[in-house]
Specification:
Layout (H helix, E strand, L loop, with lengths): L2 E12 L2 E12 L3 E5 L6 H8 L7 E6 L2 E2 L11 E4 L11 H11 L5 H11 L15 H13 L5 E5 L7 H13 L6 E5 L3 H7 L2 E6 L2 E7 L8 H11 L2
Parallel strand pairs: 3-8, 3-9, 6-7, 7-8
Antiparallel strand pairs: 1-2, 1-4, 4-5, 9-10
Length: 237
């Protein structure tokens, strides 16, 4: 199987601070990587570089064998990013937001795409509601619909469960399970160990900018993983 997402020697510096320090990653189609780590480990910076929103100080990122080139825009069609910023326009309705992004991507059959995504995230009945009228959980679900609207090859998720109520978390969990259909490659940064272990096929623990441990989710002792995670974090300089 061909490699879909690859990072080689990724480094990101903020002045004297090295947020990401020599990270190598290689993920194939259908693989779902969960990245755990303490605050300040550089997880969001790593995700930003993988998605092309942040330039690495050094190193490279390739998607489907093509190096990510900041001077071109074609790679943006292959990546969907869900971050803490929803990138939604509050005075537009849920449907109008998706129409706007769909037009930016030049998508065909846009109405049917929008209908499917709104149904997928449980917002069909709120299609005509302005974003300003939606709850935090609904906005997050709409952002997820935006992330998936163009059917990206790579989906990047930055702490997707943060601040969600149980209902919104359940919807998000169902959608993420659907992403494990083998057609997409997913990377999720999360503090939620239980959700990450349930959803991911591969696990890594990032500490002080480095990947301190990597493994298969199926081989992880879920009962004892919390203690193992703590030991990795505490034992890494």
């Amino acid at each position: 199987m061909d490699t879909v997402l690859e990072a080689k020697g990724l480094v990101r510096e903020y002045g004297p601070v090295v947020a990401v320090n020599g990270v190598d990653l290689s993920l194939q189609q259908g693989e779902f990587l969960g990245i755990f780590g303490p605050n300040g480990a550089g997880k969001s910076s790593l995700l930003g570089m993988l998605g092309g929103g942040l330039r690495p100080t050094s190193g490279s990122v390739s998607i489907c064998g093509e190096p990510l080139n900041f001077s071109e825009v074609d790679w943006r069609y292959r990546v969907g990013v869900l971050s803490h910023q929803g990138f939604l326009y509050e005075q537009l309705t849920a449907k109008e937001n998706l129409q706007f992004y769909g037009q930016l991507f030049g998508l065909t059959e846009l109405d049917s795409r929008i209908g499917r995504r709104l149904e997928q995230v449980g917002l069909t009945e709120r299609a005509g509601s302005r974003v300003s009228e939606l709850s935090h959980g609904m906005r997050h679900r709409l952002s997820l619909a935006r992330t998936l609207l163009h059917d990206p090859d790579v989906v990047l998720l930055d702490e997707p469960f943060t601040g969600l109520d149980p209902s919104a978390s359940a919807v998000l969990r169902d959608v993420l399970r659907e992403l494990k259909d083998g057609s997409r490659t997913v990377v999720m940064v999360t503090h939620n160990l239980s959700e990450g272990l349930e959803l991911a096929t591969h696990i890594t623990i990032q500490v002080s900018g480095r990947l301190a441990w990597q493994g298969m989710a199926a081989e992880v002792d879920r009962v004892g993983f919390g203690r193992f995670y703590h030991d990795v974090v505490e034992g890494h300089p």
